[in-house]
Amino acid sequence: MSAEHRVWIADRWFKADKTKSANYGKGDRWRVVWIDPETKRERSQAFAKKVDAEAFQTATENALREGAYASPEIAALTVGDAVEAWMSSKKSPKAASLAKYRSATDDYVLPRWQSTPLGKVKRLDIDTWVTALQNGSAPRRPAMRGKSTGLSPASISNVLVPFVAGLRFAVAEGWLKKNPAEGVEVPAAKSEPVVFLTYPELEHLIDVTAKAATAQDALMVAVMGNIGLRIGEVVALNVGSVNLAKRRISITATITTNAQGKPVLGDSPKTEAGNRDVPIPPHLIDALRAQTKGRAATAPLFASTTGSRLSLSNWRNRVWSKVTKAADVPEGLTPKGLRHTAASLAIASGADVLMVQRMLGHADAKETLNTYAKLFPDRMDEVTDRMSIARAKALKKVRKSAPNPPSS
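Above: the chain sequence. Below: its structure as tokens.
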């Protein structure tokens, strides 16, 4: 065994000649000693029983030899420590993201892993936990209400975010050699059906909303269904966001949720691509002019009866649930379905992928295609027909100029 891997046991109570030392009867008798490979300094740990010291000696020797050694301080760190350290390392996270991480950590991660040492986390245990999350048998925060039920694939993925990130943080800090959670298999999520309305269905919903609620509520539905804004972006709009002369609405913020789960006005949209100017269809100009006329630029475009910003949850419960029932819309239609509606109507009108991406504020065209690929018309026959025409024209030109024209 090399010197750097050597671990030995010292008897604190007796000297080499078997005589009692000054420490006789004081504290633990057996002292395991080794050289820390990082600091190159001597480390030690005392034990009352020799059998425990020998077991620790063997484990330390193996860890040094295999490169898996961790100092006692690091070895004492738990998954809970790593996750909390990762949370603290986040620089200016969005309030909604922080609240989601906090909820997942408190509700499911810590109840299972808080006191588990980092070095004791095994891939098999993680896989077993994921299965338990799926079937509803996983430990959860004691104060949580309701019956424990299995989580959806999307919810399981949300729970794994702080867990995996905490272990990744531990690797970066040298607390772990590798992340046992990397590549963990998550139940496949079923794609949500894309529910959207036709022009007549959308107009019917707008008309019903105007009668069953208010003209302002009807305009909100019209803006979401014709322009494709997220409901949080709509509620975050100010009067000054609307430029009728240029027929544009500037999206610079959204309603988000703080760490206490309360709605707050965020300082930016969902993504960087969400900062955008969207076109106003001509048929909405008059309604938006009436909505903005004589009002301060800083006032909420869609305000409550007291002039404050609307509450998303209240609007869904007070208006959306009532008008969608009265309008007998397709099952499963949500405010997000109005966003799908705007996308489908734009595609049907000839908008290409990039146009739809910009209108919706998607981070990249891949997201747009993944959601709406089936809505784009199949133009393969049209393209191949044009290719044949172009081929014929090119060959005809060559035949006219060449002495010996190639055969077709």
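The CA atoms of residues 74 and 175 lie 6 Å apart.
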